Structures are given as C-alpha cells and as structure tokens.
Amino acid sequence: MLRHEFQPGRLITGLSLTLAAVLYAGDAGDAWKTPWFVVIPVVTGGLCLAGSVSAVTGLIRRHKRSEAREARAKSPI
C-alpha cells in the first residue's frame, strides 16, 4: 500500500534546487567558476517547469477521479 501519492512537481523542484546548490558548492570549493547569474534561470526554470507539471498532474488526477465516480454511479449494485 502506498503511503502517499507520487508528486512529480515536487521532484522537479527538488532537483532544480539541488542543481543550484551543487553549482554554488562547486564554486565555493574552487572546483569551477560559476557566475552569479547562472543560478537564476536554473531556479526559475525549474520552478516554472515544476508548476506546469503539477498543474498537468492535478488535471489528470481530477479527470481520473471523475471517471471513477461516473463508473461507480453507472454500476448496477
């Protein structure tokens, strides 16, 4: 039994913020040079993508719930 639903929007958010942290950590550890403005598109792009994925996921789940509700209403029990 699942403990909770899979939420791909949160996964994308976590990955984009982890990428931003790795970029800054590599810069702080002198592994590479990261300009300060590189992280802005990574974070905003990741958040926009996560919002879009969450919206689509919510629409799909809502559609599946309504289909299941209609199927229960039509079943002759």
TrEMBL record:
Keyword set, alphabetical order: Membrane, Transmembrane, Transmembrane helix
Chain segments annotated as transmembrane: 38-60
Protein name: Integral membrane protein
Biological source species: Streptomyces incanus
